[in-house]
Amino acid sequence: MYLAVIFPLALGQIMKNEKLRLNKVVRTGHGIFSYIQYFWQFFILHSSFLIYYLSFATVIAILLVLPATMIRAAWLGALAGALIVLQFKYHYIQQVSQFLNTRFKKTVAMAVAAVIIASLGTGIFFLKKDSANGKLFIWEVTLGKIVEKPLFGYGVGRFEAEYNNWQAEYFQNHPEEMVGPKGWVAGNTKYCFNEFLEMASEIGGTGLLLFVCLLVLALGGVPKLKLRKLENEGIRKVEDPLILNSFIASFLFIFFFSFPFYNLPLLLAFFGILAVISSNKQAIAVSERTTFISRYSLATSLLFLVIWFAFELHQNQAVNEIWQKASNLYSANAYDIAEKEYEKAYTSCKYNNEFLQQYGKCLAMNKNFTKAQITLSEANKFGGDYMLFANLGDVYKELKQYPQAEIAYKYAACMIPHKLYPHYLLAKLYLQSGNKAKAVKKAKEILAMNVKVENGAVSEIEKEMKKIIAQFNKEL
Asked: Domain range spanning residue 409?
């Protein structure tokens, strides 16, 4: 994705600097300082020349690498940005409009364009069909939840915490879909693969509208206001860099099919380029003169942020070391000592889903089932997946709370229907609780399920289900 948004910027630099020539630089004087001065002047005079060839190398490298990534969102983003750059340079839209000067030509052109777009779209879809269907299913579930809270959404950052629960609720309400195509492509999802839908689910239509307004204003919606130069006040303006708009166009295409805001370099690049574009609009003027107070305030704020960031980094590093030690002890089956280490990190990590799941599992392995049940239930507030509910079901089973265990296992099975493990746990639960009829029925269901990934664990589950059927089927 990062390559995709950089591609139109590099291509734009090539288009802007097609005609370049080397300027002669003469070295004056002797000694090392004269060489330093010579190379500095050479760099300054030929910076455009260097940028041109660096951009050219970047374009070639991206063209070689990007197709191999098999990321279709990146392909579309790079193509969209490139088309805008080429329009900026060659004005091909105007040329095509002049050529299509009759109704017949326009009709034929529209038909050809429709066939090409449909063919490309179909090819891209079937290139990774399950991935495309998976994204469509995520969008369907997300849209259904947006309708429930259309104005302000579920809260910033809540999509990752809520989506798997939404998915489980969907299959609970549509059990027939569990064995269909939607159940086959469902997975443990953290991203919506559409930033606009994810924003709408988290901050509602209100927040999404504000974000769209930000883009519109930055890209040209600001009315052109007359600037008045103040006496003795330096006004700095830069020509509106239209080529930078191609970067935003690439980003917007990626917005529809991926999750660029979860990538820090992309996030910084997006708002950095957006700031450059908006600052060069005619409605904005930046003063070169700043007062002592403003400089002092800025320096103080930056110093405070640096100190705060360093302190947080130090604290997080210390907590992560404790967490890592606890995980290593858990892996070594030293559950007593691992539990104590998890307790040390609990205060700092009590809002972290992954930490709470590990801590809860450690408590369960240490036979502290009541506390494990509380910890795993807390973990679900900050993100759920099918293994969380599988572990929660195990805890309920050990506490002899079989109805709650059955609910947890069924919920895990609804979350990702094609996973055999929750169904296997249900069959084992029915055996332990003495419900042989349900155990045999569930065993037959497991053997009839389509397996997405064949491995040793699947073979062991199937063997055990066959034993259950052979042992109890005659009694029933």
From this structure: 311-472
Query: How buried is residue 72: exposed, middle or buried, by Cβ count under 10 Å (0-12/13-18/19+)?
Result: middle
Task: Tell me if 45 is assigned to some domain.
Answer: no
Q: Is 156 domain-assigned?
A: no
**Tokens describing residue 104:** 């017949």
Phi, psi of 225, rounded to the nearest 5 degrees: -100, 150
144 within domain boundaries: no
DSSP 181-235: HHHHH-------S-HHHHHHHHHHHHHHHHHHHHHHIIIIIS--PPP-PPTT--E
Per-position DSSP letters for 240-296, written without gaps between them: --TTHHHHHHHHHHHHHHS-GGGSHHHHHHHHHHHHHHHHTSTT--EES---HHHHH
Strand partners of residue 332? none
Of the listed ranges 82-91, 129-138, 230-239, the one predicted with least confidence:
230-239
Does 253 fall in a domain? no
How many domains are contained in the chain?
Answer: 1
Q: How far is CA 243 from CA 17, 315, 341, in A?
A: 13, 43, 54
Token pair, residue 32, equals 């090392």
In the DSSP assignment, the letter for residue 434 is: T
Are 240 and 281 contacting, i.e. CB atoms less than 8 angstroms apart?
A: yes
Pairing, β 286-287 against β 235-236:
antiparallel
What CATH number is given to the structural domain containing 398? Answer: 1.25.40.10
Residue recorded with tokens 């364009």: 113
Residues in a beta bridge with 287: 235
pLDDT one-digit tens code per residue, 144-174: 999 999 999 999 989 988 999 999 999 999 9
List pLDDT tens digits, range 170-216: 999 999 999 889 999 998 888 999 999 999 999 999 999 998 888 78
DSSP state of 236: E
